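**User:** You know discrete backbone vocabularies at least as well as I do. Would you mind producing a protein record, from residues through to fold? Write it directly below this note and I will take it from there.

**Assistant:**
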Amino acid sequence: MTIRDLEIFVEVCTQMSMSKAAQKLYISPSSVSQSISALENEYNTKLFERLSKKLYLTSNGKELLFHAKQLLYDLGQMNLKMRNLSYQGLVRIGVCTTIGHKLIYPILEKFQNLYPSVNIQVEIGNSSYIEQKILSYDLDVAIIQMESPCSELTYIDFLDDKLMLVCHPENPLAEQTIKIKQLSLEPIIAREPGSRTQKMLQDIFDESHIIPNVTWICKSIDSIKEAVIHNKGIALLSQYLMQDELKNRKIAKINLEEYNFTRKFYVSYHKNKHLTEYIDNFIMLCSTIKDENPLKVR
């Protein structure tokens, strides 16, 4: 087994095709096949199932992929450091959409004050997407909403959040306390599939046997806000994201009689992840937000 074998294995996993991996790496398909066979012989296990001319990673293949990506990443960081001694490393941070919209910035500012020479790479997406990036070792640490705990991840309490139904101030339901049934005919501004905020709202509709009238599907917080401001429907948003709009009467809240929308955010990382000093301190800085008032963040 060589480093090159691992590089080829990771590329095959990325492409899920030996021929495409060969093209990407500018080597022959037989060389790719030999590397995969060498790894399978080395560890006496199958890394891929081959069904209907398609590749599927086995459980052992998934385990090797995580460690291979970690090893290759650490090797790349070592090479960068040794070739440029001023290089301080990279921290890859994932944040779910709500946190990425506003709350991540004061944490990053404090982190950069501590480590001005460390490179930071931030990726924003819904929690399901970010969780998969942690599991595949494409991110070092993340802040996400947890639907159900994953046995491969560590979770640390970060922040409690309350979500509110909001609408245009001229909507007849504005500032009213209503029952869920009153939303059955209202236009709903929804988040994209994979959003756990959207799943929370959908679960309540399902529980009440309501098919929501979804008229907009948005992938960003700003697009949801704009749709509400332009009176296109009702949305569910975090309390931390609407302070200015509520204050300026651009949007109004709706109180739902039967339900209280609350959730938790967690700092999360893979249990097998080697935590560097930088990652440890990022996690520590995240914990300080509990002692502050996030609603004052601008």
Q: What stands out?
A: The longest strand covers residues 153-167.
